[in-house]
């Protein structure tokens, strides 16, 4: 998987983490709000911050890592400028998303779960967008699209890139 350069220097990431931790540390169950706040500010939860978060919240590194790795929306590196999520759940599988995934991987030059090295696009799996009656489904930059095919998704990507 290609990794993107971090948008922020390590010192900036640590400063953001210290600020977030100070704002949340006295809250019961502060871990999830801390992780969400860090990701909102940095675009990701850099792995090098996990020991700092664990120590500040009196948790083990394993507990923090377990939460970050369990929830699919937390990421270690910032996403691409565009994010295409393709549903891989049962309804979409029954409507051909496996073949659609392979076709998009070929046309995008990107495997599911990867981000282009230039940071232009992240192609991610998602497991149910709540639009099963219109399978297969995709989410492009937060907007759900149903009954999609490769040509439609490529056209949407091009349209979004032109607007950027």
From TrEMBL:
Its cofactor is [2Fe-2S] cluster. It comes from the Bacteria. Transmembrane segments: none annotated. SUPFAM superfamilies: Thioredoxin-like. Keywords: 2Fe-2S, Iron, Iron-sulfur, Metal-binding. It holds the Pfam family 2Fe-2S_thioredx. InterPro entries: NADP_DH_HndA-like, NuoE-like, NuoE_N, Thioredoxin-like_sf. Belongs to the complex I 24 kDa subunit family. PANTHER family: NADH-QUINONE OXIDOREDUCTASE, E SUBUNIT (PTHR43342), POTENTIAL NAD-REDUCING HYDROGENASE SUBUNIT (PTHR43342:SF2). This is NADH-quinone oxidoreductase subunit E. It comes from Stutzerimonas chloritidismutans (Pseudomonas chloritidismutans).
């Amino acid at each position: 998987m290609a990794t993107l350069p971090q948008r922020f220097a390590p010192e900036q990431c640590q400063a953001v983490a210290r600020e977030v931790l100070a704002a949340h540390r006295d809250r019961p169950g502060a871990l999830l709000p801390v992780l969400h706040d860090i990701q909102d500010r940095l675009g990701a939860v850099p792995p090098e911050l996990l020991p700092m978060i664990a120590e500040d919240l009196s948790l083990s590194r394993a507990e923090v890592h377990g939460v970050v790795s369990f929830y699919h929306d937390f990421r270690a590196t910032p996403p691409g400028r565009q994010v295409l999520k393709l549903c891989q759940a049962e309804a979409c599988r029954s409507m051909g998303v496996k073949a659609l995934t392979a076709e998009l991987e070929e046309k995008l030059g990107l495997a599911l779960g990867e981000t282009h090295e230039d940071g232009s696009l992240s192609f991610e799996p998602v497991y149910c967008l709540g639009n099963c009656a219109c399978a297969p489904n995709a989410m492009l930059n937060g907007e759900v699209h149903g009954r999609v095919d490769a040509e439609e998704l490529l056209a949407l990507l091009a349209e979004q890139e032109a607007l950027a």
